[in-house]
Fold this protein.
Amino acid sequence: MLSTMSGAGDPESIAHIIQVALAPAFLLSGLATLLNVFSTRLGRVADKVDTLSSDLIGAGPDEAAALARRLAYLRRRSLLLDLAVVLASFGGMLTGIAVLTLFVGALRDASAASVLFVCFGLALGCTILAILAFLTEILLAGRGVRIAAAPNGRRAE
């Protein structure tokens, strides 16, 4: 579709390319909402782990066993949340890369669109890197939750 466009540097072609590139923005918006939900839920899991870990200190044997089961359950939840974050983050990164590829492919020969290319290209690059940074941070947070939820403070990796 874009390869048949003549005059990739004219304003109408540039506007069309941006329109085509903006369609995945709705997917990115949905993924961002999902990532927000996932990080909120991980925060709630972390709060519960902190509470149960402090309750475990003065607990008797029966209560300690029940608390350990609940901590194991929360550890599984944090692993599933990590998986969800990884999948949504990769989906967002791949969407950004696809839009950037579309944009670069359509505008690579258009000298009149160099400013637009740089601005939009950098915006997409920053978005991809932001999603990657968020992914890294949320994985570190999940790891911290699993370490706190591990029996006897053992490393839970």
Q: What stands out?
A: The chain is about 85% helix and 0% strand.
